DNA sequence: TGCATCAGCTTGTACCAACAAGCTGAGCAA
DNA sequence: TTGCTCAGCTTGTTGGTACAAGCTGATGCA
């Protein structure tokens, strides 16, 4: 009958109770010692079971406090609207979206000249290790880390648009700035994948165990070649990316709210 | 100096050695007892460290065999090309893509009439729990589970397209079938998110610890209302979704291969 | 030769013990 | 009242032990 190992039974029982509302999001689970008594198992076995739930992102633990059922509030990102001249990118769409949602945006910004990593060089069609401008952005919503965004521009582009290396923000947006120089972004290629965060990503995004990152790579093209490559990392549990394709007039009709 | 707990030092050291090629993808790590000797730590501590790497998706373990460095082979999905009348969906694009990649596609298929889940009902603009046709697809590549796809059609649509409830495949594709009835899909709305798999998903996709799922929801619209909602789950480590937006003629120029 | 068995490796499960470290509220002191 | 300390809760870390269970290659029998 009871072929499942005990720590798995513990995890399954707790998961059911989380699902059926016995422990709603934000509430605390019983302590390890209480669970130990309830399931007649050692503390180690209980910890094994709880650890399963943690790595699945259902609960989080903190020393001294206990285990808490996680609650997410998903943030919507409209990826197909981001980039055109009406709505230039580079923080504008982000700040607007966040403010409209009644949240407070905040970002730190950094510019450097670095060798292009292989992944980026491939997409920009330049030599691996050749120089590129990196504009790096670390974004927060209500002071919670939200995403990191690293945009690389190939070196040949800098000769035409020297302001790309300026340390500050480009007020009108980089897309619009480049367009004013006759370099227009006429299309882009998006790649989306998911994986567990590297320690570096976990640090920047303050991600605990059991939360994957969404990786979004956007390569922008002018008429004749790639002009930038943006790699954005999001907390997977707090973000959802949206694409609108074709005629969606039926979607907004009678939309509640 | 050495503030990091020992099990973390073990994980970090092994991660570095994986990154720098000491243990390339597919190779085996030393056994727990060997590592125990090397790091002068108990087996429990070593297991704690290894468990970190497992939940981060860097290595996988199996009883009797040991720990193996994972290797992924990413599969590209062109999401913006999937759905139009030239390339109808429902397995066609999947089979074509997989065959073109020199792999062997295989899928199981199921049709049922069920109450629409809340998530789907919201998108189809029907009452939660009202009946809907579910066409469910479990897809494999070279006999490895690849994705599950659940498409819901609202009940009112079935009255116009009764073949939707047929248990078998619809040869010409559902999109084309519906178009032949005058119900044309003129646009769609995509939502993409990532999270850790539920036990059910882990079972269907044979996902081990440390691998997230990519969730792809596509809602298709006719001129006046939503006509279907497709939820696809992928192994996050084996798939990458692509979107092409705008003019990308520059992308394919001089493309190798 | 061919096949079954088993020793000896591996990880998995389960228990015990002890102390470190973080948090909270009670209670005392200024 | 305000602020500090500390007892007593929580989880985190590390050590130990024992046996179960899966895999592989060597051994030896038919």
From TrEMBL, chains A, B:
SMART domains on file: HTH_GNTR, UTRA
CDD domains: WHTH_GntR (cd07377)
Pfam families: GntR, UTRA
Coiled-coil blocks: none
HTH gntR-type domain: residues covered: 4-72
UniProt KW Transcription keyword: yes
Keyword Cytoplasm: no
Keywords: DNA-binding, Transcription, Transcription regulation
Top-rank taxon, per record: Bacteria
Stored PANTHER family: GNTR-FAMILY TRANSCRIPTIONAL REGULATOR, MANNOSYL-D-GLYCERATE TRANSPORT/METABOLISM SYSTEM REPRESSOR MNGR-RELATED
Protein name: Transcriptional regulator
